[in-house]
Amino acid sequence: MQTTLAPADPAGLEADRWIQVGSSTKQQTELAVQEALAPVLGRGEPKLTIIFCSPAFNLAEVSRLVQAAVGAGEVIGCSTAGELLRDQPLSGGLLIWALGGDGFAVTTGVGIGSPETGLRDAAHDAAQCLKRLERKQHTLLFVLADGLCGDQMEVVRGAYEVSGAGVPLMGGCAGDDMALQGTQQIHSGEILSHAVVAAAITSNAPMAIGIAHGWEPLSEAMLVTQSRGTTLETLDDRPALDVYLDTYDAPAEVRNNPAAFFDFAHTRPIGVARRNRTEIRYVYGADYEKRSLTIFAEVPQGGMAYLMQGSSTSVLNATSEVCSLAEEALGGQPAKGFMLLECVARKSLLSNAGLLEESLRLPTVRDEATIGGFYTYGEIARTEGSGGLHNQTVVALALA
Length: 400
Hints:
The structure is a single chain. By secondary structure, the chain is of the alpha+beta class. The longest helix is centred in the C-terminal third of the chain and has 17 residues, at about 310-330. Helices cover about 20% and strands about 35% of the residues. The two termini are about 20 Å apart. It has helices at about 30-40, 60-70, 120-125, 155-165, 240-245, 260-265, 310-330, 345-350, 355-360; strands at about 1-5, 20-25, 50-55, 75-80, 85, 90, 95-100, 105-110, 140-145, 170-175, 185, 190, 195-205, 205-210, 215, 220-230, 230-235, 240, 270-275, 280, 285, 290-295, 305-310, 335-345, 370-375, 380, 390, 395-400. Strands 15, 16, 17, 18, 19, 20, 21, 22 and 23 form a nine-stranded antiparallel β-sheet that branches. A seven-stranded mixed β-sheet has the order 1-14-28-24-25-5-6. Helix 1 (about 30-40) runs parallel beside helix 2 (about 60-70) and helix 3 (about 120-125) packs parallel to helix 4. The chain folds into two domains: about 1-210 and about 315-400, no CATH class; about 215-310, no CATH class.
């Protein structure tokens, strides 16, 4: 899938726009920050610096050092479940993604939620930074949300209340290296949890989003006859767990063992039918007494859903093509750089198949284009319609 955020306007393009990525796997925090920042500061003073950092680091120290180095530039970031470079994944690393030049302008915002109230109001508050932005021709709202705090679809709804239909939304849900204990967010040197941080980015040149997942429907479309939040109770008036197990012909141990079910469901998501696409939802639990499924995000009652299937090959193909899909939507302008966000569940599938390294080789993207990002607990990409929250998907932002 590819979507152009706005038509190209060659007359408005500026040469003084840059995107740069730096990374480090050094264990000593100060040395890691110095190494990761070196290529960024070599380009100039960033307008926006985004920190993607393993929770193995002291994020407060990382944030303090980065903020001191970039001066007046805006800084946001989050903890991750792995970091992404053009040609390799990092584990336990630090990655810094930055943009600068007079062709960009940036404002940032933050909102605080809670496990009880979720993140809708937090996203609404964070998105207020759009109102302080002096917009150029092309504008996008980038958000990073706590990946373990409520229904992540609420992040999309809260941000949309401010951005409206005219501003595309992209971002990711913070991770914690699969500990599933708690994630952290960064805003202007402050370390937060249960939060949403946002950057409103405006540019004289086009920006475009590519989305790919590699999953295909295994079942016919089914009506979601009963659901409550992230609990899917019935499909076509049958217990959702029974439909799931029977459709996938699950082995005996999966039918009564929660740990076996978790491993089984890892590569068998649910697809939510939208008007022009299918959004993927990660199934991460089952209630054997109530015969229901626990989903990472809402599967709306009254909507249509599919049980999905895929393979390491189909997932690999989606990963390798998504940057090209985004660049093709720039209206003929070459991309200076990409932000790449990929679900950690896809990382696990490709790792098990021995294809993780190959997934990050992107031969159709020019060598001069910078690529960096992180492995997420959920991906956000809304360019039209009511949805925008994805699981087990890869999303790329291309900037001309």
